[in-house]
Amino acid sequence: MKRFELSVLDLAPVKQNKTIHDSFHESLTLAKHTEKLGYKRFWLAEHHNMPSIASSATSVLICFIANGTEKIRVGSGGVMLPNHSSLVIAEQFGTLESLFPGRIDLGVGRAPGTDGLTAKALGRNPMIINEQFPRQIQELQQYFSVENATSLVRAIPGEGCDIPIYILGSSTDSAWLAAEMGLPYAFAGHFAPDMMVHAFQIYRENYKPSEKFPESYAIACVNGVAAETDEEAKKLATTLYQAFLNIIRNDRKPYSPPVEDIDEIWNPMEKAHVLKMLHYSFIGSEETIQSKLTSFQEAFQVDELMITSHIYDEQARLKSYEIIKTAVDGMI
């Protein structure tokens, strides 16, 4: 079984009876905690118009997290690039890299990170996204290059900064693009499991080595909910189930505390839909998590596993990441 790195994806979750201020400080507490545990990186995901997620101003939040930590890499998982000007993102991440040298990652995706109406408000043009997204990645690479010093348009800060770019995806489209461009690839298995097997196959079989990344690098993002016992973990996971149930019901509200019986909340069709979306969710005790992750890694052979954890109680969430790290250490 291939050895792999362990990292964190955070959404700055907003919880019932708590403020967004609380969300940001809980994210910072989690970053500090996982840094001490030895997690490799801490990424934040851009979302908009979602009362349960506060990471819309992703670059600002990355600065907050990086400033409160010492060595863990901090970045975007990701910036939804067609929502922005390439120059502005180059300047923002050039600023971050200048403030925190050697610690900043730029993960980029093409999805809006929101609903259609909000996507329109962000200024996106859906007719040109597939053409625009690869071009914007090339623009970022150009702005970050030393050679761009002779250009009429320069990213200051940004120029000459060594900021790794990761392509995010939830289907096979970005797998082809990451392979063609010779860039690392992160798949959103935590909510879009169906295409992950095929996407990684496409990426690896078609990878074209680049100067910065001579070999392919595959990251899988999955859900993780760990506790002392399987029963406790299953109860904590009802917050995750409710969050995805709210998505399919279009019921936008902050995350809910766990419940004793989730079957009292969803119907059989909703249950099947939610569990299908959450296929790559690892829920249980240390022993259970270790067994499930071993099977997962034997199948996927990823270079890095990124854990996102929808747990309502802050201390339980910190403990979950601790248990997962111990389980993984026991595997490798």
From TrEMBL:
<protein>
    <recommendedName>
        <fullName>Luciferase-like monooxygenase</fullName>
    </recommendedName>
</protein>
<feature type="domain" description="Luciferase-like">
    <location>
        <begin position="19"/>
        <end position="113"/>
    </location>
</feature>
<dbReference type="InterPro" id="IPR011251">
    <property type="entry name" value="Luciferase-like_dom"/>
</dbReference>
<dbReference type="GO" id="GO:0016705">
    <property type="term" value="F:oxidoreductase activity, acting on paired donors, with incorporation or reduction of molecular oxygen"/>
</dbReference>
<dbReference type="Pfam" id="PF00296">
    <property type="entry name" value="Bac_luciferase"/>
</dbReference>
<feature type="domain" description="Luciferase-like">
    <location>
        <begin position="143"/>
        <end position="299"/>
    </location>
</feature>
<dbReference type="InterPro" id="IPR019949">
    <property type="entry name" value="CmoO-like"/>
</dbReference>
<dbReference type="InterPro" id="IPR050766">
    <property type="entry name" value="Bact_Lucif_Oxidored"/>
</dbReference>
<comment type="similarity">
    <text>To bacterial alkanal monooxygenase alpha and beta chains.</text>
</comment>
<dbReference type="GO" id="GO:0005829">
    <property type="term" value="C:cytosol"/>
</dbReference>
<dbReference type="InterPro" id="IPR036661">
    <property type="entry name" value="Luciferase-like_sf"/>
</dbReference>
